[in-house]
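Exercise: predict the fold of this chain.
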Amino acid sequence: MSESKKEEVSEEELIEKKSGKKLLIIIISALLLVLVIGGGAAFFMLSSDKAEVKGESAPKDIQTANDAPIDESLSEVGLLYPLETFTVNVLSDSERNYLKVEMTLEVTGKDLSPELDKDKPELRDIIIEILSSKTLEEISTEQGKEKLKKEIIIALNKHLKDTKVKNIYFTDFVEQ
């Protein structure tokens, strides 16, 4: 019996050694593949930088961030007043659609007026009335969103006395 146990043990050890070698080969192959891919990516990234250092320029049709013209009006953003999320039902004939909007108001002045905090419920009510009076077709295009912004700005500025809204930035706009 002891000889048969030794034979079984030696066969199991042989099988374990073979499977261990296969696993080791697979791991080494995977590591080599990762190294080759990483080396190739590094080569292409570094070779394009060397071309610029040697005085060669990148193709003229590629514009870098440093070459892009700067819009001065974007760099002069005024005071920002974020509003909480608006979730409203929009007009629809057949199905129930809703709109989820998060926006930030850009206001005039050197510091935020307490008027904004004091009138926040009224401002939210004005915005909710405007949003819920729209259809998805009206607000789904870029022109529709711009028209919506203008309408909200006009309505808010009619209500506000000390502060005026210059612009509205939609930070989240989900139509469904």
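Check your answer against the key: The first strand starts at residue 79 and ends at 82.
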